[in-house]
Specification:
Length: 735
């Protein structure tokens, strides 16, 4: 096993060139150690041979300029450099250190950076969710450490933002300098005055490995990949393709900072630089490698922030987690993880950008916005579709189809990896814990996040409802097992669906998420609900199929033998029964096999009530639908005040746990139960078709025959099934 040796690079003038770090050596002698240091610091030692490095036992020996650590290459280093406080000192020769590429003779001058975001959302008001107090503290400590000449990794923060594509990372980097200059020290009593003055006059660099600068430049080390992009900002006469081909422009960031000091006439000790580095994931990386371009570029950023002559603040962004986790796990570097925000309705100068498209359909517009799940890129695509549709009749389903088409274009990797994205979506539904070793089909965690519309929240994935719609409407959708239920009960694009059917679809999706696992806790299947005693059972979950129940089919298991499924299901065909019209109790039920208790029913009941739901009402609903050993779950639009511990084998989903239970489906469920159904007499023809079961033919028939005085009158005139007509609101006073 390789030994870890701590060391610090210094110049012949005694100034630190890097912060203290460690390196692994297989053979503990000077020659092996020099070679390891050379590999560990490719940027600082790009033009220095390992043999020219001089090694001292520790800082005291170096300061005394005595007893160079055994000049013989084979001398042992076993007793030295075993901790950070007694690091080996490695001196870099000045004459070799100075051999660096000369800067190009072209004209360089200070130029403010271009925005990293050039899409529609760049004009939207920035939605800042950063902890400004914590940010102010980190910046203050960073300044003090720089002012005091400290180069310890634990004294200087590297700001890091990791998230999927289209979530606002680039926008955060664009806004970061402004946040530091205008928001974190608003109180005049806060912060060192000299520090605040430096911040106000800071020079901002914004570089990216995308947006026309993805082409590699065959750099000697990744530090040059960063430095060359910084230098590129200081000119406007040459395009990137030509600029990076000139090897004279291949410089490390330290050289660019020196150049900046010269062209602005600012002493480094009086200069603050904010460096924003976007899209680091474009640099190649192999798991476990410390020599990859990504890993070494990240290391060079740490060296910069720890030991720069000027006060340097660095923030970087990427869509991948693994290489960052690998680096930070092996380094004491202080890092501040910054999270992008899930966007609310965007505004420009405080005015809602979607209000322009309302046209009396505010609830439907809000549903579309909610379906994007706060993802900036998805909201941009929705806005662009609505803008193209401006002035036309608002038709929800055509708009949704256009949005889906636009999102397929915006996230091509999702379309290319549908099966893996399906697995990632099911991980969202099941609240499965994930980590760097998780696989989704043939993709890793980083790869599914990089596809888009997937976010990592701690150890769980999140996604918006639009990802489900994208998976459902693709040319090769996953099986919905709809053979046994009418297609009208499975319409996902319709904004108004029967809540009972909506819950059934959600339950079938959960069965797909859990069916391949070992016996699972019933409370995990219904994560987010509130549970009474006895719900913590382990059940054998199988993939469910929709079916309509016969009116005479009991929802209770009472009277059936425990060793036999009461529905006659076998392992290959497990039904979730939706009740037939006119069923006396229970909205849906299925037969579950307990890991130790035989068969019993899971019974669903939906209850829409005004005011809170009492214990008595809850008991009555349970007694009608479920047996004593059955598991009963009540869906309620209001608040359940009952002490559920008094009702064993029972659970409920009410106003207190709506989002926790439904996850990405919460907005859709809320819309179904809170927005009034279209009126059969007064709603537009477009709105008529929003109702589940109503297509173009039924829509035309209703429009031609209305107004109707009652449900019966509508049935007589249209011959549309009563079960469909019941889904409309009847306003007989209008028209």
């Amino acid at each position: 096993m390789a030994a870890r040796k701590w060391f610090l690079l210094v110049g012949e003038n005694g100034k630190d060139l890097t912060s203290t770090t460690s390196v692994g050596v297989d053979v503990e002698d000077v020659d092996t150690f020099r070679k390891a240091v050379k590999k560990e610091c490719p940027s600082a030692l790009a033009n220095v041979d390992a043999v020219d490095l001089t090694v001292f036992a520790n800082r005291a020996e170096y300061d005394a300029k005595r007893s160079v650590l055994l000049p013989q290459s084979g001398s042992p280093v076993t007793a030295y450099g075993n901790n950070e406080e007694n690091a080996l000192i490695v001196q870099v020769p000045t004459q070799r250190q100075a051999v660096v590429p000369a800067l190009s003779q072209q004209s360089f001058f200070w130029k403010e950076p271009k925005s990293l975001v050039a899409t529609t959302g760049a004009n939207w008001d920035f939605q800042n969710s950063l902890d400004l107090g914590n940010l102010a503290s980190a910046i203050g400590r960073h300044y003090q450490a720089w002012r005091d000449g400290k180069t310890d990794k634990r004294s200087h923060p590297l700001f890091v933002c990791l998230d999927g594509p289209g979530t606002g990372k680039s926008r955060l980097l664009d806004e970061f300098p402004k946040i530091l200059q205008q928001e974190i020290f608003r109180d005049e009593t806060q912060g060192d005055p000299a520090m605040k003055q430096l911040l106000q006059t800071a020079y901002n660099f914004k570089i990216t490995f995308e947006n026309g600068t993805t082409k590699p430049g065959n750099f000697i080390d990744p530090g040059q990949a960063i430095g060359t992009r910084m230098l590129y900002q200081l000119q406007d006469s040459v395009v990137w393709g030509e600029f990076m081909l000139d090897h004279a422009n291949h410089v490390v960031p330290e050289q660019v900072l020196s150049k900046l000091s010269a062209i602005t006439g600012t002493d480094p000790s009086q200069m603050c630089v904010i460096l924003c580095v976007d899209s680091l994931q474009k640099l190649p990386h192999e798991a476990g490698s410390k020599r990859s371009e990504f890993y070494t570029a990240f290391a060079s950023l740490c060296d910069l922030v720890n030991a720069s002559k000027c006060w340097l603040i660095v923030i970087c962004a990427a869509t991948i987690y693994q290489p960052v986790d690998e680096f930070l796990a092996a380094s004491p570097q202080w890092r501040e993880m910054l999270q992008t925000t899930s966007l609310e309705r965007p505004k420009i100068n405080g005015r809602d950008v979607f209000d322009t498209f309302d046209y009396g359909n505010g609830a439907l517009t809000q549903l579309l916005v909610d379906d994007m799940g706060g993802h900036g890129r998805a909201l941009e695509e929705l806005f662009n579709v609505m803008l193209q549709n401006e002035g036309q009749a608002f038709e929800f389903i055509p708009v949704m189809h256009k949005v889906l088409a636009a999102i397929r274009q915006a996230y091509p990797a999702i379309v290319a990896q549908m099966q893996s994205m399906k697995q990632a979506f099911l991980a969202v539904i099941s609240r499965r814990r994930v980590d760097g070793n998780s696989l989704f089909g043939n993709l890793t965690l980083d790869q599914v996040i990089s596809c888009g519309l997937i976010r990592l929240d701690g150890t769980q994935l999140q996604c918006p409802f639009i990802l489900y719609m994208l998976l459902e409407t693709h040319d090769i959708p996953w099986s919905k097992h709809a053979t046994y239920a009418p297609a009208e009960r499975l319409e996902d694009l319709k904004p108004w669906q029967l809540w009972e059917h909506f819950n059934c679809k959600f339950r079938v999706l959960k069965s797909q998420a859990f069916a391949q696992e070992e016996p699972v806790l019933w409370t995990d299947i219904h994560h987010g609900a509130r549970f009474g005693d006895g719900c913590n059972r382990r059940v054998i979950e199988r993939q469910l199929t929709y079916a309509l129940a016969d009116k005479r089919m009991p929802t209770k298991t009472k009277g059936f033998k425990e060793e036999r499924c009461s529905c006659g299901n076998d392992q290959g065909k497990c039904f979730l029964y939706q009740p037939a019209d006119g069923s006396p109790s229970g909205d849906a039920f299925l037969c579950l096999e307990g890991a130790t208790k035989g068969f019993f029913h899971e019974v669903h009941q939906c209850k829409c009530v005004e005011g809170n739901l009492s214990l008595d009402v809850f008991e009555q609903e349970r007694l009608k639908a479920a047996g004593p050993d059955d598991l009963f779950i009540l869906y309620c639009t209001s608040l359940v005040t009952a002490d559920l511990w008094l009702l064993p084998n029972s659970a409920f989903v009410d106003a207190t746990c709506w989002e926790a239970y439904y996850g990405p489906f919460a907005a859709c469920a809320f819309f179904i139960k809170s927005v009034p159904l279209p009126c059969i007499n007064t709603s537009s023809e477009v709105q008529l078709e929003f109702v589940e079961g109503v297509g173009p033919a039924y829509r035309a028939r209703i429009a031609k025959k209305r107004p109707f005085t009652s449900l019966e009158d509508a049935f007589v005139k249209t011959k549309i099934p009563v079960k469909v007509l019941r889904r409309f609101k009847f306003n007989t006073d209008s028209r």
